[in-house]
Amino acid sequence: MTNKEKLQDLKKYISSVYSKKERSLILSAINNYEKKLVKKSEIQIPVSIFSQTLTPFETIVKYLYENHSLKFSKIGKFLGKDRQVIWLTYKRSTQKKIEKFSEKESKYFIPLTNLFSKNLSIAELVVFYLKKNIGLKNIQIAMERTQLFGFTDKTNPNSYFLKRLVLILRH
Questions:
Q1: What are phi and psi of 55, to 5 degrees?
Q2: What contacts 133, CB < 8 A, 6 or more positions away?
Q3: Per-residue pLDDT tens for 23-41?
Q4: Is 160 in a helix, a strand, or coil?
Q5: Residue whose C-alpha is closest to residue 7's, from 29, 30, 23
Q6: What is the pLDDT of residues 67-106, one digit of tens each?
Q7: Contact 48, 152 (CB under 8 A)
Q8: What is residue 113's DSSP assignment?
Q9: CA-wise closest residue to 67 among 28, 26, 118, 106
Q10: Whole-angstrom Cα distance, residue 32 to residue 36?
Q11: Which residues contact 156 (CB under 8 A, 6 or more apart)?
Q12: CB-based contacts of 23: which residues, under 8 Å, 6+ apart?
């Protein structure tokens, strides 16, 4: 039985037992809780956010915190890291980039579940996903990096992600 089914059963039970006033208060609290239930598989990360000067991990933490309003503990659970590590990473990312990420210009989105592996870096996973799931070739990823990742001639050539992308595409 899924969490949603359990919540539906709970709502039916509450409707049959409590008075109208009590029922509305309890159901309101349950509805607020339902809105906060976010599954890792439902979160889509836009590829274009990786063009920033942040490391890929900082980028994901900042994006999840600011754009999806997730708590540090929830982000830590998703990413397999301690809440304090997530907080420190977020703090560091806000010193490098103050404004919130824009999702509008992204052509491709990657499920959060596809961005973590013990053996591969996030940059490698992004390229792997674009190749295997989207069907792009290395040359397409390299040639379209401006559209995919937002790189321009003014992009910092020392960007961690840009360096990793170039190394990955060479092999």
A1: -70, 160
A2: 114
A3: 888 888 877 766 665 665 6
A4: helix
A5: 30
A6: 888 889 889 888 888 999 999 999 999 998 888 887 667 7
A7: no
A8: G
A9: 106
A10: 7
A11: 53, 162
A12: 14, 15
Q: Are 112 and 45 in contact (CB under 8 A)?
A: yes
Q: Please provide the size of the chain in residues.
A: 171
CA pair distance 46, 148, nearest whole angstrom? 9
Question: Tokens representing 41?
Answer: 């598989």
Q: Give pairs for 124-130: CB < 8 Å, separation 24+.
A: 124/164, 124/168, 126/47, 126/50, 126/56, 127/165, 127/168, 127/169, 130/47
Give residue 159's identity as a one-letter amino acid code: S
H-helix segments, the chain: 3-17, 20-36, 56-67, 72-79, 83-96, 122-129, 138-143, 145-149, 160-170
In angstroms, rounded to a whole number, what is the distance separating the alpha carbons of residues 117 and 124? 10
